[in-house]
Amino acid sequence: MSENIFLFVPNLIGFARIVLALVSFALMVDHYLLATCFYVTSALLDAFDGMAARRYNQSTRFGAMLDQLTDRCATMALIQVLTVFYPKYMFLFQLSLIIDISCHWIHLQTSTMLGKTSHKTISLDENPVMRLYYTNRSVLFFMCAGNELFYSALYFLHFTSGPLIPYLNISIVPLLVWVSAPIALIKTGISLLHGVMAAMNLANLDLIERQEQGISPKKDN
Asked: Please, are residues 45 and 17 in contact by the beta-carbon 8 Å criterion?
């Protein structure tokens, strides 16, 4: 009897993440506390689907793709709301979205073309930053959580600054924004690195295919 990939535990968690995220999007303009609860729960479940995949030996290409798309779309939807709340910074938000989506897309596509089982599979001869990012779970979690914290704190700041921190003369929400901002900036740099490395790998594939087809470069007269 064949297995139903869609009913694997990590994929069911992935579907739950999508539902929670959609509910969050619907509430973001008028009910920020509820929206934050649903959004954060959806984000936190990202760790559990990976644990379930390893626990039940249910790692799949579909699950990896679902996880990647859910992450990208959730961040995209949140940033879209931020462009409404902070129109002055719309270009920066747009730039962040372009880098995040395009660089992860080309990285994912190139990983598939190279025959990798996962976009997180990084060989020893590849970029050391990418290798650290994907092989050290603590680093990956810290970067992803810090990035989410930055955009979530910006969202929260539109509604409230939160309680004042004694002796620091700053409220907790603005503090979270400033603390997480460098992490989000570094995460954007890593996304750019995704794009650059993927483009280089893709160009190498083109060269290999051209050589196999016997296509030689034209010589200048």
From this structure: yes
- At 157, which amino acid appears? L
Span 22-49, pLDDT tens digits: 999 999 999 999 999 999 899 888 888 8
CB neighbours of 172 closer than 8 A, spacing ≥ 6? 161, 162, 163, 164, 165
CA separation for the pair 60, 64 (Å, rounded): 6
The answer to whether the beta carbons of residues 84 and 175 sit under 8 Å apart is no
Domain ranges of the chain: 1-85, 89-221
Q: Is 220 a catalytic residue?
A: no
* Cβ 35 vs Cβ 77: under 8 Å: no
Single pTM value for the model: 0.85
Contact 102, 188 (CB under 8 A): no
Which entry of 49, 67, 71, 100 is annotated as an active-site residue?
Answer: 71
Query: Cα separation of 61 and 39, whole Å?
Result: 24
